[in-house]
Amino acid sequence: MKLDPRTTALLVIDLQNDTVGEEGAFASSGAAAFATEHGIVARAAGLADAFRAAGAPAVIRIALQSRHGTGASNLAPPRP
Fold first, then answer.
1. C-alpha–C-alpha distance, residues 33 and 38, integer Å
2. Which residue, among 23, 25, 12, has the nearest Cα to 58 in the 3D structure?
């Protein structure tokens, strides 16, 4: 499949320690083992690199929880 970088973007949502980390809140559910076994984090990083190299935006977004409430952070905003 060929994608047009002018009209295509990669969004990676919530690959955070609680969902993919071995000591995360969902580790006992098997989520971390699945992520490790299938190289989820490395694959997402590789896809983001490939999208950026092609001139398409890649945004990695996580939701943050703090004592002040929730928020969001774009850790890897699109590069110009």
1. 8
2. 12
Q: Where are the alpha helices (DSSP H) in 2-74?
A: 17-20, 31-37, 40-53
Place of tokens 């952070």: 73
CB burial of residue 69 (10 Å; 0-12, 13-18, 19+): exposed
CA atoms of 69 and 63, how far apart (whole Å): 11
Note the pLDDT of residue 78.
47
What pTM was estimated for this model as a whole? Answer: 0.69
pLDDT above 90 covers a percentage of the chain that reads 30
Total domains, the chain: 1
Mean pLDDT of 36-53: 92
Domain of 48 in residue numbering reads as 10-76
